Recover the amino acids of this structure.
């Protein structure tokens, strides 16, 4: 006989917690939509939407050297002048490899990258 009240208490606790969570989300959403200062703080500190030309990360690419750019996993690769350069998400140079490829073919799966000469086996 004691099992029914215990199950009822657990259900009431779960229902109450869900209700409080919904109320909390509604209050935060309403404050985000109404209060400009709160919205700016959430955008810049939590959602990191504060993106300007000065705060963005840049990878300089010389278009005269006919670069080949390929993105995979968490990296961006640039093949230019027989050098394959690997850049991280924050545009910092991770590594570079000398390659003698004129017509590159790149393919990737997950964190693995294949670089080959196009048209060759």
């Amino acid at each position: 006989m004691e099992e029914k009240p215990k199950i009822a208490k657990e259900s009431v606790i779960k229902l109450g917690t869900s209700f409080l969570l919904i109320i909390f989300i509604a209050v935060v959403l309403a404050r985000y939509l109404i209060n400009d200062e709160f919205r700016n703080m959430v955008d810049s500190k939590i959602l990191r939407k504060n993106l300007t030309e000065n705060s963005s990360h840049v990878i300089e690419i010389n278009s005269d050297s006919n670069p080949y750019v390929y993105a995979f996993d968490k990296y961006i690769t640039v093949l230019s002048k027989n050098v394959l350069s690997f850049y991280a998400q924050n545009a910092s140079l991770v590594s570079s490899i000398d390659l003698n490829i004129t017509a590159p073919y790149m393919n990737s799966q997950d964190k693995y990258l294949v670089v080959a000469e196009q048209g060759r086996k």
